[in-house]
Amino acid sequence: MATEMDDERIICIQHWNRRVKEERLRYLVTLLGVLLPAGMLLMFFLGALLGVSMISGNALG
């Protein structure tokens, strides 16, 4: 009787751990999916701004 309860508890804990890992993975993938394009856009705009400032600086100088 007690071992059946323990087995059920162990299975429940394993299932819970798996769910937690899946949630963490999903969160990580979502975070990467959001931050990566945002970072790429930011770098693109910074590069464009730098390029424009260099061109205008060369044109003025």
TrEMBL record:
Tagged with keyword Membrane: yes
Membrane-spanning residues: 27-55
Which terms are listed as keywords in the entry?
Membrane, Transmembrane, Transmembrane helix
Keyword Transmembrane attached: yes
Q: What is this protein identified as?
A: Uncharacterized protein
Q: What is the species listed in this Swiss-Prot or TrEMBL entry? A: Parendozoicomonas haliclonae
